[in-house]
Amino acid sequence: MANISKRNRRREREIKNAAKNRREIIAAGLSRRDMIKAGLLTSAGYLIQKNGLSARAQFGGGSFGDCDRRWWDGSGGNGTPVSPPTTPFVEPLVIPPIAQPVASLSPAPTVAPNTAAGEARTRNHQALTTLPPVKFYEVHQREQLVSMHPQLPLQRLWTFNGTVPGQTYVARYGEPILVRNFNDLPNNNGGFGLQSVSTHLHNGHTPSESDGFPCDFFAQGKWYDQHYPNVLAGFASSHPPTGDINESMSTLWYHDHRVDFTAQNVYKGLAGFYLLFNQFDTGDETTGFRLPSFPNFDIPMMFNDKNFDPDDGLLAFDLANRDGILGDKFLVNGKIQPFFEVKRRRYRFRWLNGGPSRFYRMYLTKSNLSNHPFWIISNDGNLLKNPVQTTTGLMMSVAERMDVIVDFSSFAPGSIIHIENRLEQCDGAGPTNNILPAGQGNKLLEFRVVSDTVTDNSVDPATNPTFYQVPTRVTERITRCFEFDRRNGQWVINDKLFDCNEVRFRVKRNTAEIWKLDGGFNWSHPIHIHFEEHQVLKRNGQTPTLIERGRKDVIRLGENDDVEIYFRFRDFTGRYPMHCHNTIHEDHAMMLRFDIDDVGNNNESSCGFR
Amino acid sequence: MPDMNRRKLLATLAVAPLAAGVVGQAASAENKFKVADSTREKLQKRYFPNFELTTHEGKKVHFYDDLIKDKIVVINFMYVKCQGVCMPVTMNLKRVQNLLGDRVGRDIFMYSITLKPDEDTPNELKRYVRAHKIKKGWTFLTGKPDEINTLRRSLGFKDAKAKLDQDLTNHTGMVKYGNEAREWWAMFPGETNAPWIVECIHWMDGPERKPALDAKQKETKRIEPGHNHSKS
Fold it and tell me: Which pTM value belongs to this model?
């Protein structure tokens, strides 16, 4: 590439070699102790800095690996102000209200866009008549004054029906719904945000016209009917008529996806949960998989980090940041550092990293600074085959969802436990991967154990219950490769830039594909692919961890990672994107469009030299 | 809620945690916030310093007052002797200018600011404009080096990594676009397809896209400058 200097190319090559060397070491099955003995690894766990093993250290010196104080304290660097002080844990966790259906919509939904009545949809509904909605919702995107902390002024946020996060949709498989989505945003944006929206249901098995494609945005005064069939993948192809039960999803979320303005609009409040239940994941702990009952013991938690103007205390979004915005205030469900009173029993928490950019590693820290173990039962909202216990934290990049089971029964009343992010991150490029000592990370929420005695009929994860099997694979039609890189500050995928009107490749409906994603150097990206869940086949040549060995829709691409994933694109056709979910990267065009149709093509499948 | 009531409201709200018995923790609760500037003023102070710059025609202008205020703008950084990303971006922005037609200079304004103000005098920039047959409505700008550097950083043409930030060969090909009065700001990659860039710029009109009187709305072949340029 002409624009990458020789030095950069050399660095890139070195880094690739280093990654390869690391993989070879892993492949050779050398244990940690073997490597330390052989002088390849320091006892702190770092690969030593020679033989191309750690090119980053060699080239980057301090500036690539160490925290830059200017970013840490937010005092300069990215122009982000230091937020005003706030007292932690003064307000209870707010649980977003449950969306209530309306009796009917007027005018009634139509297959073709009802342009005359103000609908902004551009394409016909694919499944409105075959999967007719049984419930109808009306949502108004509008400004609302909202308190994020009692020591800060009210914030002028953009909301779905007045709350941040928006109301939670509680949906069931087999019950299609239709949401009439109105853009009633105000004329004044308050310094950031665009009054033009596209609401994405992340990651429903949703026909393209209802998916919230980034370029299906609509203006103030318009509305858009979004049909969510709540149907399992395979219903009209491999597993008729109801679909593959092993493709069941549980925790979805919706958020604005307006091209170039997603970060601003979501930061301003446009996001919420969408939960899907079925005959196994019932929301009732006495039936099915017996997961803790919704809504009392099944709690959605959206994590965000934000900045507030030190002078006027108002939410601040840095318009000059191209790398990733790191907040110095941590919010759960729209409140800065809330507390949550828990009873002495098991809870299901649906954790979502709502962005904009930060990577988290979640721990449950007890007051004596030891870790409370917890169980991970789903990844990206898809129940795993079996629960996986962790005492070493849980990584979450933007848009990833992790359902966890936490058991508080062993705690004495009055006990305090914190959700703590201990992953060090100094700039938008990605985490340093240093894990901070217990108590020195970011405390996100405080659990307070109360004395009430309660029954707990939920399943004990230690009994190793089985949820869903990983869906069976079929022979894939094609392998495509994608290399994510940055060229003079412009994000490129296979060396090409984003254009929403350019279809980079076409997937043939009802076929399977393998995609190889190759991360660039110096950057970490959460890559999200719309529409179908994928299975991770290999990460850097290795079998993925138990947690990653399910179905996902966000793939964490750390520096130089290469990940191989498997998809089956079924049932619907239309346009979908693949993009980085660091919303700042996304808004700086780290995205491509692909279409699903009945022909397909073989673009982006030359995988040599990648 | 009017701004004048904010402090009063805050005072009311700040009592709540005390009432809830969280005494001791609330010592820092006395945040005193000033009445907020209009957000437009805030953006101006934070991102658009009103530095004096000189155009390629030798005219003195103030960045905010004369170039940004009340306008739809397209801004990038470049320098005349740049061997890297500047030329493909300039060539691509020429296509963009053609597609936007006479709106450029009327209600859309294009600015290219030099990264090497020491080298790029107004005359140098004028030569560049002439050599590349750049039409009216697209202004090239130079100024005091330290002010240009501040401007570059405050507009978001900086790199988080200090080393990359100082490396001119690596300077960004991203281009800022915005509508100052509406407080809408974003960026596009300067090398992406010109018709797509034109769509992005038209978003700054709001829902009602304004027509150009003489725009050359036909580019028969889709141009992919980034792609062509990238093969070494």
Answer: 0.87
